[in-house]
Design goal:
CATH architecture: Alpha-Beta Barrel
Helix content: 25-40%
Bound molecules: flavin mononucleotide
Mean pLDDT: 93
CATH superfamily: Luciferase-like domain
Largest sheet: 8 strands, parallel, barrel
CATH class: Alpha Beta
Radius of gyration: 22 Å
Order of helices and strands: EHEHEHEHEEEHEHEHHHHEHEHH
Structural class: alpha/beta
Strand content: 5-15%
Number of domains: 1
Low-confidence stretches: none
Number of strands: 11
CATH topology: TIM Barrel
Length: about 450
């Protein structure tokens, strides 16, 4: 590793069919991968060639045709990752599933199954589902408040982890002579009766190869950080500056220690959208071309979603108005408000910036410049790696793997090979003991 750090920079690929830039899909080289398995399989192979730790699929529970093409139609993540598991060997496979709208039994079963199918490469992005419009597709009444969503998530994750521990690792003795398939005293029935969930158990899946699939948390509000510090191994974030990134990471590591955990076992991966050109001028022109393709109406819808307020009635050439705290995405709204104030942005400038990568940091430049930007954050303690969000697929991602990764490797920042068989091993994380069968 580099002289400045003794830990490898972790790399995740945030795969979004239409690309991460809202107008990325309009670029002549862009191929639309939302439901194109062949294309996605090729992208996954490229990620593995670049020794990426994981491939991540976000998910939502509504279809919205008006903001970003990727939100209109996409394959259900567990189904897609199961298909990708067959053509990859080492890549971690991370799927999003909502703690607000999915029963913990379903979650535990789905991720245990993916972990078995992939030989221990599953990760669960546990999200609370921010958007109230999701509730219209389920039959549970009103969308719970921000605090309630996190209280549900706390209990849901505990139940899921309890279900993953239903069987001791050696429970399935399959003893033909004795006629014993499973040792009855190596099975735990959870009998969970909580505030939100009643789940008897045991799970109808043996203990996953990783013990527990990796848990990812992507909310950065205080309840989100507390949840991540207690339960998660990876945290996806969207900070814009190194100062913000470092403050967040330091705070989270402190919360992890308070929760009795090793802070190195919680890794912060901010999203970064690299716009790569052969020269600085080429990268700048590509960024301008992408920005020029933005539909202002879609851009303002994306900003409304991120802020949790409709700002379309305000003067677009004036400053961002003072808005009350949103119940939707608290941390993202705060980051964008800070950005607008710091950079003195008009509403129009802000929504163009947000449309770029939905509020994530955009870095444009040569491969060398992109590598510099990542190194600065990583060495400066702002992250444990990055969630790479190409503006469009596949060529911009191929450029990242072909041109940026070798520079990072030469600098000793990323590892040049997979070091284990499971995602947990590749991330240098221990396999958790079974809480009911600690032996
Ligand atoms: C990189 C990243 C990916 C995310 N992916 C999803 C997703 O797939 N589905 C979802 O409902 N929310 C997703 N979120 C949103 C968060 O889970 C969370 O709901 C949001 O940040 C608001 O939580 P907060 O108020 O705690 O910040 C993502 C956030 C980030 C930073």
């Amino acid at each position: 590793m580099s002289a400045a750090t003794d830990r490898p920079m972790r790399l995740g690929l945030f795969l979004q069919g239409a690309g991460h830039h809202v107008a990325g899909w309009r670029h002549p080289e862009a191929q639309f991968g939302g439901e194109n398995l062949k294309l996605i399989q090729g992208i996954a192979r490229t990620a593995e060639e670049g020794h990426f730790d994981l491939l991540f699929l976000a998910d939502g529970l509504t279809s919205s045709a008006d903001a970003h093409p990727s939100f209109v139609a996409r394959i259900e993540p567990i189904a897609l990752l199961s298909a990708l598991a067959m053509g990859t060997k080492h890549l971690g496979l991370a799927a999003t599933m909502s703690t607000t709208y999915t029963e913990p039994f379903h979650i535990a079963r789905a991720f245990a199954s993916l972990d078995h199918l992939s030989g221990g490469r599953a990760a669960w992005n546990a999200v609370t589902t921010s958007y109230a419009r999701s509730s219209a597709n389920f039959s549970r009444g009103d969308h719970p408040s921000h605090d309630d969503r996190y209280a549900i998530a706390e209990e849901c994750i505990d139940v899921v982890r309890g279900l993953w521990d239903s069987f001791a690792d050696d429970a399935f003795v399959k003893d033909k002579a004795r006629g014993v398939y499973v040792e009855p005293d190596r099975v735990h029935t959870l009998n969970h009766e909580g505030r939100y969930f009643s789940v008897k158990g045991p799970l109808n899946a043996s203990r996953p190869p990783q013990g527990h699939p990796i848990i990812i948390q992507a909310g950065s509000s205080l309840p989100g950080q507390r949840l991540a510090a207690r339960t998660s191994e990876i945290v996806f974030t969207a900070q814009q500056t190194l100062v913000e990134g470092k403050a967040f990471r330091d705070g989270l590591r402190g919360f992890a220690v308070e929760a009795g955990r090793n802070p190195d076992h919680v890794m912060v991966l901010p999203g970064v959208c690299p716009v790569i050109g052969g020269t600085e001028a080429e990268a700048k022109a590509l960024y301008a071309q992408l920005q020029g393709g933005i539909d202002p109406a879609a851009a303002i819808l994306l900003l409304n979603d991120r802020l949790g307020h409709d700002v379309s009635g305000y003067d677009l050439d004036g400053p961002l108005p003072n808005l009350p705290e949103s119940d939707q995405l608290q941390s993202r709204a705060r980051l964008l408000t800070d950005l607008a104030r710091r950079e003195n942005l008009t509403l129009r400038e802000l929504y163009y910036l947000v449309a770029g990568a939905r509020g994530h940091r955009i870095v444009w430049g040569t491969p060398e410049q992109v590598a510099d930007a990542l190194e600065e954050w990583f060495v400066g303690g702002g992250s444990d790696g990055f969630n790479i969000m190409p503006p469009f697929f596949p060529t911009q991602f191929e450029r990242f793997v072909g041109d940026v990764v070798p520079i990072l490797r030469k600098r000793g920042l990323v590892r040049g090979e997979y070091v284990g068989n499971t995602l947990r091993e590749n991330l240098g994380l221990p396999r958790p003991a079974n809480q009911f069968f600690p032996d």
